[in-house]
Amino acid sequence: MAAGADIALPPPRHKSDISLEETLLRVKSVRRYSNQALTLSQLSQLLWAAQGVKNAAGKRTAPSAGATYPLEVYAVVGNVGGVASGIYKYDPFSHKLRKIQDGDFSQDLSLAASDQRFIARAPLNMVIAAVYERTTGRYGQRGIRYVDMEAGHAAQNVCLQAVALGLGTVVVGAFEDSEVTAVLKLPDNEKPLYIIPVGGITD
Questions:
Q1: Residues 90-125: tens digit of each pLDDT
Q2: Exposed end of the chain (fewer CB within 10 Å): N or C?
Q3: Which of 4, 35, 20 is nearest to 160 (CA)?
Q4: Would residue 62 count as lying in a domain?
Q5: pTM over 0.85
Q6: Residue 155 falls within a domain, yes or no?
């Protein structure tokens, strides 16, 4: 698939066999992942949990100050069934992925994060970036705090969704912003805030 092509994602489910309380009990940092590929449905659900649109009014799964929605979500795909390795950007309105780059960039992302090897081994790395101006344009410098809060809400959604899917994850903030920006070829106004590797749990 050429860069710029869209991938339609399966519709997200809105019910689960596991309760919210159980996901809170079981959520933990996981840095060892199985070799099993993630499914397209799992990828779809994780992206929706991070920033999916949940109603006709355009409200998303994570709260946003003034509905300014400064976050952008990327999927660095290494091993997802039916999806070629590459870097993709999530479009929450169409619930599609847009390919940005071809190839497996998991190793490059790991090196940008102080060579944390579990990032290279994860079949999927989600990256949350932010366009601060969307929120600071309305709220001034206080908007910086609102954006950081929103990123935390989105990341926690991903962690809880991973548990509900039987997957493991961990949130990573130890990385060089400029290097992550270079790997993902982020626009100048997008600042990386989180790397979230996701994968199957080893026995």
A1: 999 999 999 999 999 999 999 999 999 999 999 999
A2: C
A3: 20
A4: yes
A5: yes
A6: yes
